[in-house]
Amino acid sequence: MATIYDKAVWQLLLDFANENLTEANSTFHFSEAVSWFGEKYPLIKNATIRAHLVKMSTNARGRVGWKPRPHHNAFFALGKARYRRYDSAHDPPPIMHQDSPAILSEHDSIADDYSDEDGDRIHTTEFAYERDLQNFLVKNLNLIEDGLKLYEDEGITGVEYPVGGRRIDILAVDREGALVVIELKVSKGHDRVVGQILRYLGWIKQNLAEDGQHVRGIIIAKEISDDLQLACSMTNDISLREYSISFALNQVN
């Protein structure tokens, strides 16, 4: 993929680290990286810098959606937007794919099921099913809307796009150039998801969208509740979709 400057963003972040992390225990804050880029490479978006820091942080589980390579294993996330260099001698092995051992923070736990952002309990089988749905839709965005394409910028795609400590399921661009936030619900979509997607839309509008670029959302669920339909009737920026899956076997002998 073509880059804006003569180096990719991940390479520029390594240059930033070489210039600024001169002590053995040096750390840096996201804002320091933003300031450095602002002075030297002002065309790089802050959101793109943030996303690359996720991809290049060996303990960030959100990195797996962008298929990190060994040369991306540069940083270790300390929390509160602060980072240091990755220390292969003392830090846990990098998370490289979905099956990598989870590196847990104080707010994480291992369990057979979990609660989604709406507070609904979701079993691991449903979680895997949602991943399959996401993977399928990423490759078939035209089924959602004709002309829809996956967001991509400087090697960062719209799969599990990070937004203020959370992640958008799919970030896409429509045929008119608008940014489209796609939120997936493996079961029933409730009205509570409206607050979630509005927060994502606001973050994208503030941190990623160009001046005048429209931002809208699509909620996809197996079943759309009446409450969700009512809540979304108050805005033209969120549309709703229900999905269904069919399976058939044909006799061949």
SSE order, as H and E?
A: HEHHEEEEHEEEEEEHEHE
Q: How many domains comprise the coordinates?
A: 2
Structural class: alpha+beta
Runs in which pLDDT lies below 50 for 5 or more consecutive residues are 102-127
Question: What fraction of the residues are assigned to beta strands by DSSP?
Answer: 15-25%
Number of strands: 13
The pLDDT mean sits at 85
Largest sheet composition: 6 strands, mixed
**Approximately how much helix is present in the residues?**
25-40%
CATH fold type of the largest domain: Trna Endonuclease, Chain: A, domain 1
CATH architecture of the largest domain: 3-Layer(aba) Sandwich
List the helices and strands and how they pair.
Elements: H1 9-20, E1 27-29, H2 30-40, H3 46-56, E2 75-79, E3 82-85, E4 113-115, E5 121-123, H4 124-139, E6 149-150, E7 152-153, E8 156-157, E9 159-163, E10 166-173, E11 179-189, H5 193-207, E12 215-224, H6 226-232, E13 238-242
Parallel strand pairs: 11-12, 12-13
Antiparallel strand pairs: 1-3, 2-3, 4-5, 6-10, 7-8, 9-10, 10-11
Task: Describe the model.
The chain has 6 helices and 13 strands. It starts with 8 loop residues before the first helix and ends in an 11-residue tail after the last strand. It has helices at 9-20, 30-40, 46-56, 124-139, 193-207, 226-232, and strands at residues 27-29, 75-79, 82-85, 113-115, 121-123, 149-150, 152-153, 156-157, 159-163, 166-173, 179-189, 215-224, 238-242. It has 2 domains: 9-85; 113-242, Trna Endonuclease, Chain: A, domain 1. The model is unreliable at 102-127 (pLDDT under 50).
